[in-house]
Write a structure and sequence with these properties.
The chain has 193 residues and is mostly helical. It is built from nine helices and no strands. The termini are far apart.
């Protein structure tokens, strides 16, 4: 009973549960608002990709926020929830990959048909997903000594470089100069801290 009580008082539990519920709500909302099946898969995949990127950004924003505000603040809270945020980012990235790969592309048969730009973008996306999965795995984090070691943060930075490269290569919204400038400025701000 005490273990269950501590589970419900842990913010990480709510991040993981909230991620699952958000993924269900996204599918329900897109199904209700989109008539065409192909457009439904495109929009749902984009929402999942955006959620994965936001979780990764919150994960990486913890260290600069701790540095700027040394007292207990949002940075310490995000740092405490780091493994859960990494797991949520990996979860949304898996959903993004599965919808994009199996529903939009049609599976392994159509990979060779893609232009080189899209193949490179897919490789970068899968690399980022692999790094996020490592970050979300508790056993790996214990071995890396999450609290004392900066390796986990470095893995997150590598994943964010792959995610930004993936979005710049393939993202339809990234073709707009305003969106591209906003995304690149957010990454520059994050890396400059």
């Amino acid at each position: 009973m005490n273990r269950i009580k501590s589970l419900f008082s842990d913010l990480r539990f709510y991040i993981i549960t909230g991620s699952f519920l958000l993924s269900l709500c996204a599918v329900a909302y897109m199904r209700l608002t989109t008539v065409d099946n192909y457009l439904f898969y495109i929009r749902t995949g984009q929402i999942y990709g955006l959620c994965a990127g936001l979780c990764l950004y919150m994960l990486l924003a913890a260290a600069p926020l701790k540095k700027w505000f040394p007292k207990k603040t949002l940075g310490h809270l995000l740092g405490f929830c780091g493994p859960a945020l990494a797991l949520a980012a990996a979860y949304f990235a898996c959903l993004h990959v599965s919808i994009t790969f199996f529903k939009q592309l049609g599976g392994f048969n159509n990979v060779g048909v893609l232009p080189n730009k899209y193949q490179w973008a897919a490789l970068l996306g899968v690399s980022a997903l692999s790094l996020l999965a490592v970050l979300g795995c508790a056993a790996v984090l214990r071995r890396l000594k999450w609290k004392k070691n900066v390796w986990a943060l470095r893995i997150g930075y590598a994943a964010s470089i792959f995610v930004v490269s993936h979005a710049l290569l393939i993202g339809p919204h990234m073709r707009k100069p305003q969106v591209r400038a906003a995304a690149l400025s957010a990454v520059i701000i994050l890396f400059s801290l």
